[in-house]
Amino acid sequence: SSETYRYVIDQCGKIKGYQGNRKEKYRHNLMLYEDTANIDLDNYRNSVTVGFRKGNTQRNTTPDMSMNVIKSSIDTLQSMVEERGVRPFLNLKKGQYRDVRITRIAQHFFDQYSDKVGLAKIVSSVFKNSAIFDTGWARIEGKEILNVLPWQVYVDPAEEVYGKITKLYYERKQYPSTLVTDFKPKTDEVTLGEYWDILKGIHARFYESGEMFVEKWDKPIPFKKLSYSSPVLKGCNSVADSLRSIQLEINFLLNAVKD
Q: Residues 85, 88, 93, 95: is their CA dihedral positive or negative?
């Protein structure tokens, strides 16, 4: 209905307006991690080539001298997380033989499922996002667990502080029309928004051209957040934030040596 349409659009606008300079911080952090002069978080088809420096005419477009402690630190941490693995672990404290046997069978099932969906790799990718930006997000879609870009997910910061998220907005720009299943777009790409509201019991998918598809929703919001460190209030520093000053000083010294 038109009332539901207006409600969803209004709520998404409000949630998105609460984010402040978060996206700009993420852009700067990604530039530091990739050692790139500029990058666009929303332009996936025409973004700046990672490592390219304007005016560098050499075949190798990376800087002549580079020491990226941010990337080295984050990649090392991600490798440690993936190597150690992440899996559900069932620990039976009390029980008879039958209970122990059931627990072992269930553990075997979860181990097999974790390997099948590549849980260790997905979790390490979510962790990598949290180390770069401060936050990583995973989406549970059916039997799949997906790593999603953190700047595409919007929640109410006040709900985060009080520990219960009741609504979430997920926005994907430049979404290929070939992947749209709701209708046939007339353009090559669309902006796809998804909104969950557990108090209203709805999940809505909508497009900038005006189409909206709403369904009832009586399950938890299918997103899980991973912060790099436990927030005191509503945010935290990432590895990139913590090493920013060191990296800038290294860049300054390397440029001085090169000149």
A: negative
